[in-house]
Amino acid sequence: MIRRRPVPAAHPARPPTPRTSALTAVLVLVLALLALPAAPFGGGAGAYAAEKPTVRLSTSQAGTGGSVTVTGGGWRPKAILMVLICGRSTPSRGVSGGTDSCANADGRAVTADDKGAFRRELPVSEPPVPCPCVVHVSTITGPKAAADAAFQVAGHSVEPLPREATGGQLSLLTDARLTGSDGLLTWFGAPPTRELVLTVGNVGTSPVKDPVFQVGTSHGVFAPRWEEQRWRGTIRPDGRTRITLPVDLPAGAHGDYTVSLTYGGKVLAERPWAVGRPWGVTLFWLMLCLVVPAVLFRTGMAVVDRVRPARAAPRRWGRGRRLPAWVPRPSPSNAAHAHPRTPSSARTTPVPVPVPAPSLPWFTPDTSRETTVPDTSRETTVPDTSRDTTVPDPPT
């Protein structure tokens, strides 16, 4: 008899738990949020960058010595802005001629907040050119942006705006670039020079003859220094040409500069220019600080050696001293040790023997003749006085 194993019954399906349902709902919500367009949720810097900068004034007219409150919005967060009163300008036309038509001395700087808004009190002053005037707000660093609001300076002259040229109009066709390099003299503080090269085209209906461009150089947050340069030539309608304009900086300039090019009050190009530090000047001053003290020291030592008196020979101990008067003096002695001794050098040095000077031959006596010399070698008889001699006795 075969026994069959009992077949286990199938597990019944478990109902979904509350935790699983919550995870599924969260996942579906996340997928739905990702599928939605990002425009409604773009509340960051991109949203403020897409807005157009605006400027509002607390009053539309004020006299010199007063003030006006300037507020704005839609600017780049944390952007540094410059607020100026400019003449010969309108909000629709903008500021013509750059900041030369603005009251730069009484301008104010302000930093936008995290939302791109700002608020600044601006003193009212007369611009160097007649009105109509505007309150001009522009960025100092970062991408260029500007906005204007109409403003009337009470008591300032008002003149009609100059008529805009309706003939030829230049437009930038290619990006401008700076060409050139620094030389050895620039490393020692010579003015850095470059050439701004760009291609422009005439999009107007009449030719442009000898156009005048404005080339500006600015360093950091300072206003550009503009210089007018005339390009000799004629650009026909629908024509294009390559323009090269020289750009130079002051002697010893270094740091980050910006080169701007404007024509007809419109900015055509802006290029950054990083200028290296003139290390040759630093090296020169360092060498000067080392060489000059060394030369002065040597000169002073030479003068001291010249004016210093000659030093006397050192005196030996015990010589040259005088004894007091009450001390008895030793009596002079005639002994041998009382005489001064002869120096050892004098005793050891041989005395030179004088050599007779040679005489002339005609003054020398003739010594060739024979001279008789007496013979002293013979014996001479000497009487013997040693014998006894009888001496007679004297008489008594």
Protein described:
It is built from five helices and 20 strands. The longest helix is centred in the C-terminal third of the chain and has 29 residues, at 279-307. Residues 7-13 and 34-49 have low confidence and may be disordered. β19 and β20 (266-275) form a beta hairpin. Helices cover 16% and strands 29% of the residues. The chain is elongated, with a radius of gyration of 59 Å. The strands form six sheets. The protein has a five-stranded mixed sheet with strand order 2-10-9-4-7, with no helix packed on it. Strands 11, 12, 13 and 18 form a four-stranded antiparallel sheet that branches. Strands 16-15-19-20 form a four-stranded antiparallel sheet, with no helix packed on it. It has helices spanning 18-35, 45-50, 184-187, 279-307, 344-348, and strands spanning 54-57, 61-63, 67-73, 80-87, 89-90, 94-95, 108-111, 118-123, 133-139, 146-154, 170-172, 177-179, 193-202, 208-209, 212-219, 225-230, 234-235, 240-248, 255-263, 266-275. The chain is of the alpha+beta class and 396 residues long.
